[in-house]
Design a protein that fits this description.
20 strands; single chain; alpha+beta
Amino acid sequence: MALRHHKSVHISNPETFKNQLLLWSEKFDEIVWLDSNNHKQKYANYDAVLAVEAFTSIQTDYYNAFEQLKEYQSITKDWLFGYLSYDLKNDVEELSSNNFDGLYFPELCFFQPKKLFFLKGNTLEALYLNFVSDELEDDLKQIESTVTSSAVEKSFNDKDIKIKLRIHKDEYFEKVNAVLNHIHRGDIYEANFCQEFYAENTTINPIDIYNNLNQISKPPFASFIKLYDKYLLSASPERYIKKDGTKITSQPIKGTAKRSLNQKEDNQLKKELSEDIKERSENVMIVDLVRNDLSKTATKGSVKVEELCKVYSFDQVHQMMSTITSEVDKTTHPVDVLRTTFPMGSMTGAPKISAMKIIEELEETKRGLYSGAVGYFTPDNDFDFNVVIRSILYNASEKYVSYSVGGAITAKSNPLKEYEECLLKAKAMREVLEN
């Protein structure tokens, strides 16, 4: 196991410190930043985590990807941070991804950071690999002298960003109707159909855009990733899966409603979502799928639904969430738990394989990191991963900016309502890009 130098520091103003920490990290080529935005969740370990500067890393396309990750994780036995892209589905099943890709992200990427920071309450834990531990004191001084502006700055780009739609409204209706035909024929019960919004020849300031996006949404699974010229700016509200000892927890979200500034109206919207038959059936179908996925590694009889269709409120939207847990054997490899549940049901549909085939046929864009997962492994074989939604992806070399949104199509779906739900989900990303 890699040896790390450990130091605990008292932080008097965690919010300011978080901003300083993220700005300080900008000079590194590899950054993973995770922020829970002080959501008090039952399963949260830290308020914020920063991993920078790769000592070792793995980067690969989908071919044999999970096997390679398993080997890397087993040999390294240290903290690893990175992502799984949606197209790793092709490693798990006989599937392919042939749609347009403007982003060119590797399909899997993880690194072992030289420098690690965990913030919880007023305590910062710094874990440095031993051979860089002499840099720790200097780094802390630098972080604390990093100047951040108190107000979130608007990042003005060289020119206005022109956002284009990969699928136009009429075509979107045709495609949703095609999904509905598959449902009426009995090929699937539900499919998560996504569309891309994009901008070409565009330069952005990733940290500014991320800060603005995070400020609007304040979600529990926000993340900022920089891997050389590739960036993820994510305001995700959803956990994909977590392993804590032998306990596995998955928390799919299905069901979205808008918020209102009027308290009475807001409560009514929340109540309507919790009682909406279509939204509940969407959620229950995915709960069944997750139970089935978890049962592949679970000890007999250990799969349980802890919460069904509970509505949680976020700054932008109300969301319906369920919590499914299971127990695994001590000998079960953490990567096998990921392999047997990936891609997450909330982003695919049911039955999963048929849904993924239909999605591939009808969508115009390769999903890549969108609807994949970002997270980390601990030295003790635990892990925690989010679902990459409500996210902006950026390839600085290609000057290509992209965000995608989707919704679950079921027999009761109305194409116009689905389209409106997509625009609601896209609102925050569009706002920060167009100022």
